[in-house]
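The protein record quoted for completeness.
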Amino acid sequence: MVDVDSLYESFFVARQPVFQTDESIWGYELLFRAGEANVAEIANDSQATSAVIADGLSMALEGLPETAQVLINFPEQMLLDGVGFALPSDRCVVEVLEHVRPTPEVLDAVRRLKDAGYAIAVDDYFGQPELRPFLELADILKIDILALGADPERIRAAVAGIGGLGCRLLAEKVEDNATFRQLGGMGFTLFQGFFFSRPEILTGRKLSTSELTRLQLLSELSGLDFDPKRLSEILQSDPNLSYRLFRYINSAGFGLRQKVTSLKRAIDMMGMLQARQWLSAVLLADMNPASRSGELALMAVQRARFLEGLCAETGQKICKPDAVFISGLFSLLDTMLGMRMDDILATLPLDESIVKGLCGEGEIHDLLSLAHSYERGHWADTSRRISRLGLTTSQVDRLYAQSRHWAQRMVGGG
């Protein structure tokens, strides 16, 4: 019997956003598996890596604005082999990884890319003298803030003398909003790290009436005893939502031969489950219109679908698809709303398993932790969690890719 998973090559990548000073999206870094847990035996690593980049890039670019740049990590051999020339120079930034040494051969390879119009980023710089030869070629210099202890004096010392080189400073591993704001005054214009997914607690923050209404609708949609008639009532009460549903369902990508002209027909065509999930995604995306929250909403919708897929793939009896979906959907609400998760959950009549999962306990929390590791490219931890679930890397890659496409279609439908 043929092992279906053996027919798939693991190539999917995680994607981490890079923000500008105004918190709008500048682009994304693609985080590759770097050959770990390849399914197939491949004799030529350079050819394999080229295929990985090509496949991963096509997925990463789908649904992104044309202005969004993509940072792609390059180890030494990939640079020497000229793999970067397979990428579009107007969209891709070649990122020289921290362990690459500036030998004459490597510098020549990087210079050829730069002369051909590629932007060059140098990774994990914190003042190392041995990396200075790269700086004259760099368009973007990534400063490792944690490696400098987030110490303002050490950061200033690391970037001293760089101003005349004309490269942009990208602060990576920015862990909180206070550091983010402080770095903006030191010449940094690009930012990357976990600050965007950690809540900044605002004193006296309360949910507005509209936010509370949307949360209550989300909670209602996630309930196991949800009345199908209620979905039509919600849509009929909001012309904007009805219009967006029609636009989504009538899109060319949905593959319908005839236009849908009624709410009942739209819901019937989608199916109750997908209609509920679409509405949940739209409500979440509308929770906060800020650029950063828009990225978080997309991530939350993708997590929800990813967890639902993991649940179905494992076939665990303890796994309830509705519960894991809403857990993923709600998992970033604390950041989006600037509130503690405990305070948000206190307003919602959610199932106990969801509450435990969002508070760091139980099987749902384990699935959320897997999603968190995958999103950030923590491949060793990801592999351990995949093994515990009895799944393969290729299965999880496929589910992650499918969840991203689904999330972009759902959120993009608005």
